[in-house]
Amino acid sequence: MDIKEFFENVNHDLLFKALTLHLTEKWILMYIRRWLETSVQLPDGMLLPSSGKGTPQGGVISPLLANLFLHYCVDKWLLIHYPLVKMVRYADDIIISCRTLQEANQLLSSLKQRLTDCGLTAHPEKTNVVYCKKSGRNLKGFPVQFDFLGFSFRPIRMKLKKGGSFLQFDCIMSKKAKVRITQELRKLEFHNKTQRTIQDLAILLNPKIRGWINYYGKINRRCLKPVFYYLHHRLIKWILNKYKRFKRSKVKAVKWLRWVCNSFPNLFYHWTLGYQLT
After folding, report:
1. Which of 14, 56, 57 shows the shortest CA–CA distance to 38?
2. pTM of the predicted structure, to 2 decimals
3. What distances in angstroms separate CA 248 from CA 9, 186, 237, 244, one per listed residue?
């Protein structure tokens, strides 16, 4: 489930009702109200007055207030009315695990009404009942995949060490996440930075590479292979632009990059973990 335009529709009266359960200092409540009710200045200088709802996106306190609002709107409500279901929430993105289709449909209907009562709306295109298909579960006609926080949850064929395989509902890095990373690499345009050395490129890229591996690699490191294949492709373009002696020969550029990889395996962070040039 995803909530449609959540930050724009947080009800101020309900939010302050939740805040007063945790705050007794009137001066703090006064400043929070000022933050919420101040006008928003557009790039052209025009001021938009407050509408009595919403938290400003980009505001330092908005994530805290939004989570507090949803804690009472969704988390506590589920705990009281559906204590047996399992729920994971990151901001306004929510996963709720139910045991049966009947329970899922009934809960979804009730939760949509709960959101309406709190001035919110479930996003019609991003809210679905998904069937966690795996071996032994053979219902048909339902979606079997969804994305959450950069991961794609879907049936995955797992191989057994002794041979054979089975179908497991698990997660891997989503296609959208891979596209987002490759776009980020493209925007860096480091293949045109011919005044830089390859050590300079390593300093530029290693923090990003380390972050991708620490996040997506916790689940499955193999899913990052396409990302590093693309990274190596951009490095080859940099080599061809920087070193004229290779005469635009990709074969010679790949050979040189492979030599660097073998000679300095700690240069790029992913090389130290076995993501060698292929």
Report:
1. 56
2. 0.80
3. 55, 20, 9, 7
